[in-house]
From TrEMBL:
This is Co-chaperone DjlA N-terminal domain-containing protein. It comes from Pseudoalteromonas luteoviolacea CPMOR-1. Residues 26-141 form the Co-chaperone DjlA N-terminal domain. It holds the Pfam family TerB.
Length: 152
């Protein structure tokens, strides 16, 4: 009996664990969730901002954006790192579109009216992983502050 259990466990270890592919909207949602969670506070304005941005930029219905948001939260909970999501975004966007993604991340970071240093760090880290230059990173931040009417 113990030998059969040992063989079963060995067989499980031998099988590579394949992660299910993630679509662009879910990957984008996961990056936004990571920014939202960076300061360990989840503000209602941040939740609302993420679902609105998913609707607007991924052409989703309100119901679909809620489902994508829930799935993104679950995937972030289970993820070891963010590279899986960043890769999907990088593979499906141009340099210009990645700058727009950084703007979306800034919109989530500023949604509650303040910028926590951990949110700033998270957006900065993601910008680096998406090969967005420091100048474009700063320009995106200033652009979003202007859109939202926040002081410099």
């Amino acid at each position: 009996m113990l030998e059969r259990i040992r063989l079963f466990l060995a067989k499980l270890d031998a099988q590579p664990q394949q992660e299910a592919p993630v679509d662009f909207a879910t990957a984008l949602g996961a990056l936004m969730v990571e920014v939202m969670r960076a300061d360990n506070e989840i503000a209602p304005d941040e939740l609302k901002m993420i679902t609105q941005l998913l609707q607007q930029h991924c052409q989703l219905s309100a119901h679909s954006s809620d489902l994508i948001f829930s799935k993104a939260q679950q995937l972030v909970d289970e993820a070891i790192d963010l590279h899986r999501f960043v890769k999907v975004v990088n593979d499906n966007t141009s340099e210009e579109a990645r700058i727009e993604v950084i703007e979306l991340l800034w919109m989530v970071a500023f949604a509650d009216g303040k910028l926590d240093p951990q949110e700033d760090y998270t957006v900065r880290k993601l910008a680096g992983l998406m090969y967005v230059s420091h100048g474009d990173f700063i320009a995106a931040k200033l652009n979003v502050k202007g859109i939202l009417g926040l002081p410099d």
